Amino acid sequence: MLLQLERVGRSFAARRLFGEVTLDVRPGDRIALVGPNGAGKTTLLRIAAGLDAPDEGRLKRSRTARVGLLRQEIDPTSERTVRAEAGLALAHLDALEAELRALETEMAGADGAIPEALATRYDTARSAFELGGGFERAARVDRVLGGLGFDEADRDRPLSSFSGGWLMRVELAKLLLAQPDVLLLDEPTNHLDLPSIEWFEATLEAFRGAVIAISHDRAFLRRYARRVAALERGRLDVYEGGWDRYLRDRAERREQLLAAKRNQDRKLAETERFIERFRYKASKARQVQSRVKALEKIERVEVEPDTRRAMRLRIPAPERAGDVVLTLEDVHKRYDDTVVYAGAELQIRRGDRVALVGPNGAGKSTLLRIAAGALAFESGDRRLGHNVRAAFYAQHQLEVLDAGRSVLEELEAVAKLDDVPRLRGHLGAFLFSGDDVQKKVSVLSGGEKARLALARMLLRPANFLIFDEPTNHLDLEACEVLEEALRAYRGTLLFISHDRSFIDALATRVVEVRAGTLREFPGNYSDYLGRSRAPDERPRGVPGHGRPHPATTASASGAPAESAAPPVEARAGRREARREERERRKARERTQRRIERLEAEILERETALEELGWKLGDPQVHRDPERIRTLSAERAEVQEAIDAGYREWERLAAELESLEQADGSGQATDQ
């Protein structure tokens, strides 16, 4: 046993956060710690790390076990370089190296034979240094920093030049380099881009120690969780098995508990009816008293309200927009000498659900802000289609909330007069009910602020929703509710998310942003991974946060700085490529519409075929040979039409696949 929490409890002021928490951590464990925001998950991790003492119970740890916690508090003013800060995790090797140098000096100064004790000390120190990876520590540091998205130049920049998200990556690098026996991770994928998440998961897969992770990344949980510890309503329930098994077992447990409660309630009601009926009959006094005492001794089955799906979000049906919702044409954007886009093109049509993916610093947020009309650009054109009403949820949305206002006042600030009567009901859908609407924004948790920002954004119907990391700060249940609401939404979506499950559930098209180039892939994130490139060609992120220019995610990954506009020939070539791409897209859409019409016709004919089959099976029909011949001929004709339809469908499907492949290869050079 590496670590054990034994009947641990913790309270804050008069509120009991949790109690009677017991958890055993064994070598090789992969434990997902889940629960709603505010349940005390981070507090429990700090107790497990030995940083906080429990109010009750105790923490037991193996004498040799080393525990590492992903810290959330980092000094943003430090002038130490990224490489030097990450190297602190291997400081014990510095001490060993200094000892080796001292021993070597001592041995060099020895007269004659080296004393056996001195040689033994040297061999022991050298063995410890070698086993600890001392001879390859610089390479280890660079390998981990590179995997987390730091390029060679960024590794020598001071920590003070980076934003909080990148500082968190440095802390994660230190933790991975230290290689403790137990890793305690609080939202480890929150500040990673998709390529870095893939690298981190591969690193974690090779880790031999135990891991306890808090995460709302369902793809991460599905891949790694082998046990799930659910902290809810002050207690911890441990489920053996992976994430999907946990979801099934949790639902089954609740059904069993509900069944037990219904059975107990029925028996209690019968007993209470007996007591009430015979309370005043002397002949039944003994039986009545016996049942009264039995009622007092019964341990009632309690079923807590299922608050996991309490956020009932329904996005108002928007007005219908025109066929083309957004067009970006020949967009140029730079920050000082750094060119982000030199002729970017993007078109979004009604009903599209477009996910922007790519390494941090590639320009995703810049493109999203340009699309939302929140960021100016040097040249090019941005056009919204007919009757398009856009709403933008930015990463900084939480920061612009007024800390001095109440929840209700924050919504009133953006509401129109006819919105006022429904504000409380609207807030209720986002779990702000009763006195909660009078809470000050300053006391809200990160998850509550995220819900309030979403409530503001979705107060009025919009037919084009633009999201920058909408699931950040939301707990798992809120992520699922938002996902369901957006799945049912009838408008158009453009979004950035590092939640792969979220992208898979919503995206109909993925646009990869890389080095100022846009490449489009039909389908969701899983489709994109399968079609974009081989695993060893996946991009690695390059930090963009904290750079000394206005938009921290703007610099293109590895893009050379350009100081002049592209030559006339290049612009003409791009225009021709864009024209060809538009033709390919039109041909693809025509083929797609023909396939959809054909599928409807086949379905209609199959329904007719089924009806003819029923008619031929009618005993009354068998008395009329002429009727049988007519129905049989009609059935054969319909079957032949269905077969011909499927042959045409196969031809069109192959044509569409060919067009999509040509479209993908054309877009790879389009920008």
Features:
single chain, 671 residues, alpha/beta, six-stranded mixed beta sheet, 19 helices
Descriptive report:
This protein is 44% helix and 18% strand. The protein contains 19 helices and 18 strands. The protein has helices at residues 41-48, 82-87, 91-108, 116-131, 137-147, 164-178, 194-206, 218-224, 243-278, 285-297, 364-372, 407-412, 423-429, 446-457, 476-488, 500-506, 525-532, 568-616, 625-668; strands spanning 3-12, 15-25, 30-34, 56-61, 67-69, 182-186, 210-214, 227-232, 235-240, 324-335, 338-349, 353-357, 379-384, 390-393, 464-468, 492-496, 509-514, 517-522. The strands form 4 sheets. A 6-stranded mixed β-sheet has the order 5-6-7-3-8-9, with helices on both faces. A 6-stranded mixed β-sheet has the order 14-15-16-12-17-18, with helices on both faces. Strand 10 and strand 11 form a beta hairpin. Helix 3 (91-108) packs antiparallel against helix 4, helix 5 (137-147) packs across helix 6 (164-178) and helix 9 packs antiparallel against helix 10. The radius of gyration is 32 Å and the shape is globular. It starts with a strand and ends with a helix.
User: How many separate helices?
Assistant: 19
Main beta-sheet strand count, sense and barrel state: 6 strands, mixed
Indicate the structural class: alpha/beta
Counting DSSP E segments of at least 2 residues, the number of strands comes to 18
What portion of the residues fall into strands of 2 or more residues?
Answer: 15-25%
